[in-house]
Structures are given as C-alpha cells and as structure tokens.
Amino acid sequence: MRLPDWHRTKIICTLGPATDADGVVEGLVSAGMDLARINLSHGSHGDHARRIAAVRQAAERIGQPIAILADLPGPKFRLDTLAKGVHELRAGATVILGPDGDAMHVLPVRDPRFLVALKVGDRLYLADGAVEMVVTASSPPQVTCQVLIGGEVRSGSGIHAPEADLGISVPTADDRRHLSFALEQSVEWIGVSFVQNAEDLARIRTCFPIGCGALLMAKIEKRRAIDELEAIVASADGIMVARGDLGVETDIAEIPLLQKRIIAAANARGRPVVTATQMLESMVQNEHPTRAEVTDIANAILDGTDAVMLSAETAVGAHPVSAVEILSRVITATEAQPSVIRNGDIADRGSADVTDALGLVASQLAARVGAAAIIAVVHDFATAATIARFRPGVPLVVLSESQSLARSLIAIRGIAPLYSASGNDAAHCVDGAGRWLRARGLCRSGATGILLLAAHPCDRKLDSLQIVSL
Questions:
Q1: For residue 121, what are the contacts with CB-CB under 8 A and spacing of at least 6?
Q2: CB neighbour class for 80 (10 Å; exposed up to 12, middle 13-18, buried from 19)
Q3: Are strands 396-400 and 373-377 parallel, antiparallel or unpaired?
C-alpha cells in the first residue's frame, strides 16, 4: 500500500456512519488523515469503541501514526430524536419546545434545564445558526417560540441561546461519563467544548487519573472565551477555532478576524491550533468543492493553522475519502509557497529556556546549510511543541520512546513523529529518521540533517545540536 504523502499541515477527520463501510478508514489514512475525531455528542460508546479500534488497526497496517481526538459535548443543548429525523420549520410558524414531543406540535429537547432558563425575548439559534427563533411565552417545562428564519432541523441539532444565563459549567455530568470512556480507550486528545476560562480546563484535568497522558484541546466557540483567550491558550495543550458555534455566539462578520487572532495567539505560545467547521461543507453531498472552500483552506494555512478539520464531510458525507484527497491537494499546493515557511521568523517570547533557543537556532541553521530535516529526540509533548513553533522549512522528525506521545505529536504542524525504542542513541535515531525521509522522497542518502538531543543519556532535556549525515 502506498505511503501517504507527507504534509506539514495536518488533517483531522470526524468518524461516523459514512466511515463505517469496509475500507473507508484505510482510505482516509492513505489519503492523508493524521487524526481521527470521535464526536461524543452523537452515537453510542459501542460505536465509538469500534471506530477507534478500526483506526488503530488501519494505522498499524499502513505504518502511519494516527491520533484519536475525543470531543466532549460540553454544556450544549440539543433537540432530542425527531419522529422523522428531520423537521422543516417555516418562518412565522409557532413552535413549542418541550421535554417530550411529536412531529406535529412539539420539538423535543434533551435537557429540560435549558427550557427553565429561557425567558420571553431570548433568541434561539438551531442548525449552526441557520434557523432563528424568539421565545414568545414561557411555561416550564415548555416554551413557545416564533420562527424568524426558517429551515431544516435534525435530531440532535444544537440549540444556542446566547442571551440566556444557563448557569452550567464544564465539565457536565455527561462530560464526565464520556471522559471516562475516552480515557479507557487511551485516546491522545480530549476536545473540551464551550470553554469559557482556564478554570474550565483545570476542572477537566482533575478528572484525569494519575499518570494520564491525554492532552486537552480547548474549543474556542463562546464570546467569553475570546475575552479570556490568552489565559485559555496558556492553560491548554491545543486550541480549536470552532467556527460553527463561534459564528452563532458572536457576529458572523467577525469570524475571519477572530480566526486570525486565535491562530496567532496559539502560534505565539507553541500550541497546536485546529481550524474547523465547513471546510468542505459542499462535499457532504457534492463530489467537488466550491472555489470559496478551497480558498478558505488555503487562507487557514497561511494564517498559521496546524491542522484543518472535516466534520460532516467525513462523518455523514457521500464522499469522505474524496474530501480528504481534496484537502491534501490544497495543503500541498499552499505549502509550496515560500510565504508558508517561517524558519524561525516568529515573535520572540523572551524566554531563556535552552530548548527554545535550540529550536530557533536549528530552524535558522537548517535553512542556512540546506539541511533536509531537523531530528529531535524528545520525552515530552512540550519540548517538541517548543521546537516546532519556529516553523522550520524542513520536516521536523521527532523520535520518542512512547508510542502514545508519538501519536499525540501528529497534531503539530511540521512534525513527523516516529516511535523509537533506542532512546538517546544518536546513530539509531539518525538512521531511523533517514530511512523515513528517503522512503517518502524527502531526502537523498548523505543529505545534511540537524540533530537535537540531550548531551547525556540520563538527561531528558535537549541541550545539544549536531550536524549529521542522513
């Protein structure tokens, strides 16, 4: 089986019914998927466990590390199961929301606490903001609404009430249940939905057992999260620009600039950042994307995103593998432009840390001497992220003795993570990296490389730089 083409910007695919058919997961990996996302807002734990196992098996067969991102629902309210799965809401119609419903008169809501918190005049947004309603009467456990902008809603559609004080924090009881499942499955990343401040992340971490290596990706999708952005970025391991819900919670006209602001904040801190929502939305049904979607992907890469994410395109879309192939093509074309490469040209944090300095020097030296790659032997996520934040113009091959850490690192732009049982043995690391690079046509035998490792075998901190032959 052909090895996937290597690209700096990573691809995240949401798993779902469309990926359950034979050969689809392997097709996603071969097309360029780096991380597989399970959306715990939908489906059963049995479904998710089966999909995670399928990804692990496909990754092993193809020889490609693939990380799992488990996305917690957070305090988001949703419609319950609709009688026909889909319901058309017409502008001007009166709609009742309640804990129980039928297709004709009442739309069912999963959590009745949501209904109690609503008051007359509150605006409600469904289907990622496509449908808008206003509360006209409240008689808990039911509320009456008038449809202002009509459209189609589905079972499980999210309901937003930006003006309501819902009084529910992260993690919810449902989050804790899902988190326990995700950790049992040894996922590498946990997506934390509707983060509002750094304290939300701290509460999630208290749920981790001692020694748990899972990393937290804070999803920025609320106005308050923008106000608390710097603190959230500092506390998280990764960041997601969740444009769907963010576009409902804020003025949709602000989304392009908010995306740039969030990405810049994550880049400055060396946190991997994901751009998500409607990257190739038209390919849920169509075989080819729009020109606007292709341009959106390229602009996210030029903004500095580490990864781009597909949601419905792969979870329920008609062309999941084709969507990844298109995404990979756009990434390859965009990364061919010199403006994508920074080679250490990034804001200096003023840090006196040795690893920070080595990352900057290695990036600039690789460009100066024409190195084919930078090779680093790491024992923790933060070290690799620190080196990668300088965005070298060559692959950053990171070797780790931990398979889980190697998979976690796949989320970072420019990193090619490899599992190595040889620890700090420089010769073995250089040989392994060289074989990986040559297998993908990224270097020739005898090419120059930059090696970063600890000078002493017992030291886990990088403090040595060597020029080596690959």
A1: 134, 135, 163
A2: middle
A3: parallel
Alpha carbons 397 and 429: distance in angstroms, whole number: 10
Going by pLDDT thresholds of 50, 70 and 90, the confidence category of residue 349 is low
Enumerate the β-bridge partners of residue 138.
143
pLDDT-derived band at 1, boundaries 50, 70, 90: low
Cis previous bond, 73, omega within 30? no
Residue 251 has a CB neighbour count (10 Å cut-off) of: 9
Residues near 353 by Cβ (< 8 Å), separated by ≥ 6? 386
**pLDDT tens digits along 12-28:** 999 999 999 999 999 99
Per DSSP, the three-state class of 326 is helix
Q: How many CB atoms lie within 10 A of CB 337?
A: 11
What is the SS3 assignment for 458?
Answer: coil
**In the 8-state DSSP scheme, what is residue 2?**
P
User: What is residue 99's predicted lDDT score, i.e. its pLDDT?
Assistant: 85
pLDDT digits (tens, 9 = 90+) for 270-286: 999 999 999 999 999 99
* 3-state secondary structure at position 35: strand
Both tokens of residue 145? 């609404």
Please, what's the b/e burial string for 180-200 (b: 16 or more CB within 10 A of its CB; e: otherwise)?
eebbebebbbbbbbbbbbbeb
Q: How many CB atoms lie within 10 A of CB 261?
A: 16
By C-alpha distance, which of 148, 130, 151, 141 is closest to 94?
148
Kindly report the number of other CB atoms within 10 A of residue 373's CB atom: 26
Alpha helices, DSSP H, located in 370-445: 381-388, 403-408, 426-439
CB 339 within 8 A of CB 303: no
Residue 379: C-alpha distances to residues 359, 386, 387, 400 (Å)? 15, 13, 13, 6
Residue 192 bridge partners (DSSP) = 218
Rounded to 10 degrees, what is the CA torsion of 213, 218, 224, 229? Answer: 90
Residue 252's CB: how many other CB atoms inside 10 A? 11
Compute the C-alpha angle 87/91/93, nearest 5°. Answer: 75
Whole-number Å distance between alpha carbons of 330 and 336? 10
Q: Whole-angstrom Cα distance, residue 411 to residue 230? A: 20
Interval 211-226: pLDDT, tens? 899 999 999 999 889 9
